[in-house]
Amino acid sequence: MMMVLDHVAIAAEDLASAEAELTAAHGLTFQGGGQHMDMGTHNRLIGLGPSEYLELITPCPDIPAPSQPRWFDLDRFSGAPRARSWVCAVTDLEAALAQIPFPVGKVWNLGRGDLRWRMTIPEDGILPFDGLFPALIEWQSGGHPATRLNEVGVRLEALALETPQAEALRAALAPLFADTRLSIAKADAPKISVTLATETGTVVL
């Protein structure tokens, strides 16, 4: 079973200030979003077409912290807003997990409003390959967030992963994910970045 890109998570320390910063710096217009009661987070979104979106996500001070570390390693995040994780959609989560020869997390049943989905979340909050392997998501009732967002002329041009484990990560993803926008390069430290095409130019986060 092949995975397809679903969304990219941009982490920040505070949702309102991060949204204001990204809007002022890059002209990005965020919409929708809400609270994730199970994970103690909240978000704002930008549609990237009919089936993809960008998610700005932070811990929510109004929700108790979960019993385990938050997803996307948010509990250890600090600094300016930046790409933190990526998420791939599958039609059968168990079948997809059977193809991956290492643990990627426990399956959680989650929801926000009328949206319902199942998703893999590691018990320590850190995805494999120092957070560079994607989380897996299986959407259920309520449709997909991207279909609810206004078209704002933003598209994902590139998703770049840098890691000391480049060859191993490339090998792990090869049978599961095929998207020409993805690049994996060897580097001294793990890093994820996204390049967006907007109506006013190119944005790299």
Write the layout of secondary structure elements.
Elements: E1 4-11, H1 15-26, E2 35-36, E3 41-47, E4 53-59, E5 82-89, H2 93-98, E6 106-112, E7 115-121, E8 135-139, E9 155-163, H3 166-173, E10 182-186, E11 191-198, E12 201-204
Parallel strand pairs: 1-4, 5-8, 9-10
Antiparallel strand pairs: 1-5, 2-3, 3-4, 6-7, 7-8, 9-11, 11-12
Q: What structural class do you assign from the helix and strand content?
A: mainly beta
Q: Look at the structure and name the CATH superfamily.
A: 2,3-Dihydroxybiphenyl 1,2-Dioxygenase, domain 1
The helix content is: 10-25%
Q: Write down the secondary-structure element order.
A: EHEEEEHEEEEHEEE
β-strand number? 12
Calculate the mean pLDDT score and round it: 96
* Bulk shape: globular
Low-pLDDT parts are none
Strand order of the largest sheet: 2-3-4-1-5-8-7-6
Percentage beta strand:
35-45%
Count of runs of 4 or more consecutive helical residues: 3
Number of domains: 1
Features:
2,3-Dihydroxybiphenyl 1,2-Dioxygenase, domain 1; 205 residues; mainly beta; eight-stranded mixed sheet
How is this structure best summarized?
This protein has 205 residues and is mainly beta. Helix content is 13%, strand content 38%. The protein has three helices and twelve strands; from the N terminus they run βαββββαββββαβββ.
Please give a structural write-up:
About 15% of the residues lie in helices and about 40% in strands. The chain has about 200 residues and is mainly β. The strands form two sheets. It has an eight-stranded mixed sheet with strand order 2-3-4-1-5-8-7-6. A four-stranded mixed sheet has the order 10-9-11-12. It is globular and about 40 Å long.
